[in-house]
UniProtKB/TrEMBL annotation:
<dbReference type="InterPro" id="IPR019301">
    <property type="entry name" value="Flagellar_prot_FlgJ_N"/>
</dbReference>
<dbReference type="Pfam" id="PF10135">
    <property type="entry name" value="Rod-binding"/>
</dbReference>
<dbReference type="GO" id="GO:0044781">
    <property type="term" value="P:bacterial-type flagellum organization"/>
</dbReference>
<protein>
    <submittedName>
        <fullName>Peptidoglycan hydrolase</fullName>
    </submittedName>
</protein>
<feature type="region of interest" description="Disordered">
    <location>
        <begin position="49"/>
        <end position="68"/>
    </location>
</feature>
<keyword id="KW-0378">Hydrolase</keyword>
<feature type="domain" description="Flagellar protein FlgJ N-terminal">
    <location>
        <begin position="45"/>
        <end position="97"/>
    </location>
</feature>
<keyword id="KW-1005">Bacterial flagellum biogenesis</keyword>
<dbReference type="GO" id="GO:0016787">
    <property type="term" value="F:hydrolase activity"/>
</dbReference>
Length: 135
């Protein structure tokens, strides 16, 4: 008996094919969406297991016969669709963060040679004043 892999995420993980078909930025966006979908699926699975632990076994709303596989399939599809429509924004943030590695190597590290310090975190350390007197 021969088993063939016909689909799923594992067939879509060839980086060279993704880059050829979508370019570096497109491939990065697709991989980020897939990661977000996997993350959302894990969150949904954990949420469902938490609610199952607290549910009443005698309730007519809970049937244990066919729930497992169908709920997993539903959660996977829901997570995939949510990630494609900016469900959490995780894919967008990952794409922005990781796309910096594709930019030119002019500034590999934010380093100011005259000050001899790194400047990467300086914008994050600037506190904006709060109040009516400040503009």
């Amino acid at each position: 008996m021969k088993v063939e892999n016909t689909g799923g995420y594992l067939n879509k993980l060839n980086a060279e094919d993704l880059i050829k078909a979508n370019g570096e930025q497109g491939a990065l966006k697709l991989v980020s969406q897939q990661f977000e979908a996997q993350f959302l699926q894990t969150v949904l699975k954990q949420m469902r297991s938490a609610t199952d632990a607290m549910s009443d076994e005698d309730s007519p709303l809970t049937s244990k016969s066919n729930d497992g596989i169908y709920q997993d399939l539903h959660d996977a599809e829901l997570a995939s669709r949510l990630s494609k429509v900016n469900g959490m924004g995780l894919a967008e943030v990952m794409t922005k963060q990781l796309s910096r590695s594709f930019q030119s190597a002019k500034d590999p590290v934010a380093f100011d040679p005259q000050q001899m310090t790194t400047t990467a975190m300086q914008p994050a350390l600037i506190l904006r004043p709060i109040g009516k007197d400040f503009k």
